[in-house]
Here is the input.
Amino acid sequence: MQNLIIRITQENTKLITEDKIGCFILADNLSADFMTWFTEEAHKHNKLVLTSGDNAVETYQNCKADGLVIDSSKDEKPQKLVKQIQAQAKKAILGVITRNRRHEAMLVSECEPDFVIFRLWKDGLAENRELIEWYSELFLIQCAAQPEEPCDYTDLPVDFIISDDTYYRV
Here is the structure.
């Protein structure tokens, strides 16, 4: 069964106590005070909190989050970015968004993040399904699907589904 990760994009406090959610990703547009408060509250409910965005490492450190998500999808050689982040946040849980291509997924996986994230769109869903099936069979590193628009992901062989708080309803 796929586990659910919710990306918090607005100052939303309703989901902290939701039993089906074990982890949150804080968007970088949120205020520092809200991120710190949210992290403290989520920890009281035994939930993990990850940060994201250009300042993910600094935010991770400032709000005492459990880890971070970085986007390496713009890089043809993402290892340098992943290793740099790993050096800056040694104890952090690390999720890495990769290009939806085998080569980049392999390069990211060589750096051994905690999980790799594949973005999904309706167009190309069959190709993404094939990529994720290949990845799941070959690598022991957990993977996540992050739908960028509503699409059917229920039978994908992923460990996590990442959804925005704007789509998820209690």
